[in-house]
């Protein structure tokens, strides 16, 4: 009887590890819902579709996107936070959900530190300062700054919404350069680009991925990129440091996440799959053509980056004066 009791206790102690291993072996065994907190056609949506296409091939189950845009990504982020922690709901969360929105809103419907389980970094990209080739006479960064400062009534700069990295980096840009600039929020790059091409909007400092085609077509001029180095598909466009603006490295990034509480075995399998995708040279080239870097990381790396960048974004939000309630 003592042996039977000892075996029972050993089996009970081992049960969590057996269940964890079983979860990893069987996940996913049905469709995974991918909540995209931004509209169809934007950078996050396009890059998420590239990833999910590969996830489906490698894991043998469907990854179905569900766009839940609105409130600077808060609607989709909240939907993820309130999903069952079973590994069948995930989302590409950008900077707003991880830390910016907590400085913009007096109250969030979710807690970014408590309610999300990071999986892996997904993509990273810089912003780019662009103007309409037809409606702006400047041919480089210095000429644009001089032209902008000479405009009576100032200039206008667009973004996909208050509190986005395009808004905040645009606000930081006009503040640092002493330009009289007015922020004009839009729903996304699909509305910003026509406004610039028609001459109704001066410029934007928006996510590079949305502007690569119109820059390469010559319909827009790109004066500077906010990344640490030049972008491979736009080698003639300098970074901010090269045009004389120091300490202006602003990159947007996205990390895939589950709701908090998903079994670690599932998190580990999802992260390992994303690492395999991120290391694929063909995928890296597809992301570059779309205007982003395909990246991967451990879940702990995501949390560490959020903590490291939080003070910077708190200060940028303060400079912008943005507040949403």
Spell out the blueprint of helices and strands.
Elements: H1 2-26, E1 32-36, H2 43-59, E2 63-67, H3 74-81, E3 89-94, H4 95-104, E4 116-132, H5 141-149, E5 155-159, H6 165-177, E6 181-185, H7 189-197, E7 203-207, H8 212-216, E8 220-225, E9 251-259, H9 264-278, H10 281-290, E10 293-294, H11 299-320
Parallel strand pairs: 1-2, 1-3, 5-6, 5-7
Antiparallel strand pairs: 3-9, 4-7, 4-8, 4-9, 4-10
Helix pairs in contact: 1-9, 2-10, 4-11, 6-11
CATH class of the largest domain: Alpha Beta
Question: Tell me, what's the shape?
Answer: globular
Strand content: 15-25%
State the separation between the terminal residues, measured CA to CA: 65 Å
Look at the structure and give the mean pLDDT: 91
- Please provide the ordered H/E string of secondary-structure elements: HEHEHEHEHEHEHEHEEHHEH
CATH architecture of the largest domain: 3-Layer(aba) Sandwich
Tell me the major beta sheet.
10 strands, mixed
Radius of gyration: 22 Å
- How many separate domains make up the residues? 2
Number of helices: 11
For the secondary structure, the number of strands is 10
The name of the CATH topology of the largest domain is D-Maltodextrin-Binding Protein, domain 2
Overall structural class, as computed from helix and strand content, comes to alpha/beta
Helix content: 40-55%
Q: What is the CATH homology-level superfamily of the largest domain? A: Bordetella uptake gene, domain 1
Which consecutive residue ranges, at least 5 long each, have pLDDT under 50? none
């Amino acid at each position: 009887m003592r042996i039977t009791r000892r075996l029972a206790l050993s089996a009970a102690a081992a049960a969590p590890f057996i269940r964890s291993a079983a979860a990893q072996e069987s996940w996913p065994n049905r469709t995974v819902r991918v909540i995209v907190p931004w509209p169809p056609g934007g950078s996050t949506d396009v890059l998420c579709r590239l990833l999910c296409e590969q996830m489906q091939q490698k894991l043998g189950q469907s990854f179905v996107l569900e766009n839940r845009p609105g409130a600077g990504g808060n609607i989709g982020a909240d939907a993820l936070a309130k999903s069952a922690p079973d590994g069948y709901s995930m989302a590409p969360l950008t900077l707003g959900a991880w830390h910016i929105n907590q400085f913009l809103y007096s109250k969030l419907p979710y807690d970014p530190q408590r309610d999300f389980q990071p999986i892996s970094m997904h993509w990273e990209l810089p912003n780019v300062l662009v103007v309409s080739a037809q409606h702006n006479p400047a041919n480089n960064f210095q000429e644009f700054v001089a032209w902008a400062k000479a405009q009576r009534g100032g200039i206008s700069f667009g973004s996909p919404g208050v509190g986005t990295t395009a808004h905040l980096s645009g606000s930081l840009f006009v503040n640092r350069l002493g330009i009289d600039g007015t922020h004009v929020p839009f729903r996304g790059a699909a509305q910003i680009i026509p406004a610039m091409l028609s001459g109704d909007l001066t410029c934007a400092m928006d996510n590079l991925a949305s502007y690569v085609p119109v820059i390469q077509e010559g319909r827009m001029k790109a004066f500077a990129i906010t990344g640490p180095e030049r972008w491979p598909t736009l080698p003639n466009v300098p970074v901010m440091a090269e045009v004389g603006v120091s300490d202006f490295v602003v990159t947007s990034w996205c990390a895939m996440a589950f709701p908090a509480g998903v079994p670690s075995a599932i998190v580990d399998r999802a992260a390992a799959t994303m690492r395999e995708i991120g290391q694929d040279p063909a995928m890296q080239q597809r992301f570059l053509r779309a205007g982003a870097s395909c990246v991967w990381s451990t879940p702990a790396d995501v949390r560490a980056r959020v903590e490291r960048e939080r003070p910077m974004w708190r200060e940028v939000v303060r400079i912008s004066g943005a507040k949403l309630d």
